[in-house]
Every structure is written in C-alpha cells, then in structure tokens.
Amino acid sequence: MEEIVLAGGCLWGVQEFIQYIPGVLSTEAGRANGTTNTTQGPYDGYAEAVRVTFDPHTLCVEALIEHLFEIIDPYSINQQGPDRGEKYRTGIYSEQAEHLTRARRYFASRADAAQIALEVLPLTNFVASDEEHQHHLSRYPENHHLCPIPWELLHRYKR
Fold first, then answer.
1. Could you say which of 5, 10, 59, 61 is catalytic?
2. What is the CA radius of gyration of the chain?
3. Which GO terms describe its molecular function (predicted)?
C-alpha cells in the first residue's frame, strides 16, 4: 500500500470520483499542507484534498494523475468550477519523494506541460476533514448540485 494526496478543488467530488478507481483501497477527505492541525479556526493555507491509499501493483502514480485530470481543469489556478480561492488549488502531495518525481516527470512528458498549474510538493501536514465531509456525496447525493462534476463522470468507475 502507498499513500498520495490529491487536490482538485472541491474535496467532495474528488473523493467521490477517486474512491471507485480500480486499485484505490481507501480515501479520506482533508486539508493538505496547512499550518495547523485543526479544521476549526481561520484559513491556514491548506488545499482541500483527498488522501488516497492505493495498491501500487494495480495503480501507478501516473495513472492516478490521469484520472484526476478527468475531473479537473489542470490549467486553472485557485479555481475549479465555481469554487474559487487558494484552498481550491490543484496539487499532488506525498511524503514519498519518488511520487513527486514521477508526477513532475509525467507533467514534463505532456505537450501541455507549460500550462499545467498543479503544484507538486512534499506533504507537510494533513488534517482529516470533519466526519460530515467524509464520503459526503455518497451519503448525501442530493447535495450533488454543489459539485461542478457531472454525476455520471463521478461514477465512471463505480462497479
């Protein structure tokens, strides 16, 4: 098992989509690279993100990024759909340097590399979101109108 953290705007949609990809073992919604260890208080620089535990024998870092690109605008800075602000930035975060190297190499191999706006940084802090945000769209599908990703796309890999 390996872990990587993916930020793609609204964490509800990212978690709903990513959890069904073959090779993903678990997901946890949260906040990446903020300066505090709490979900309470003022904004502390975090990005809304999802910690993904995956089987590297089934799913590689590059494939995870390709899947993330299915649901985000990789060229947008601090905005995904109607969600705007620094906390909605896109990014790849990991405690494993190899994951970051592979992400950078993957971006560099693309024809659109110069336009890709995802940050690729070491994971310095991850704070799990409150329970109400964990698997939110699975538990409250009626809130899908708050997510800019089409429902059919969110469930492309659901079995």
1. 10
2. 14
3. peptide-methionine (S)-S-oxide reductase activity
| Spans of the chain below 70 pLDDT | none
pLDDT digits (tens, 9 = 90+) for 31-68: 999 999 999 988 999 999 999 999 999 999 999 999 99
In b/e form, how buried is each residue of 141-154, taking b as 16+ CB within 10 angstroms? eeebeebbbeeeeb
Place of tokens 């590297």: 56
Q: What are the angstrom distances between the C-alpha of 33 and each of 9, 37, 64, 65, 128?
A: 15, 10, 20, 19, 12
State the Cα–Cα distance between residues 22 and 5, nearest whole angstrom. 17
pTM: 0.95
- According to the model, what pLDDT value does residue 52 have? 98
Residue 41 and residue 30: Cα distance in Å, rounded? 15
d(CA 98, CA 101): 5
Q: Which of 17, 19, 140, 31 is nearest to 71 (CA)?
A: 17
C-beta of residue 92 within 8 angstroms of C-beta of residue 137: no
Q: What are phi and psi of 19, to 5 degrees?
A: -60, -20
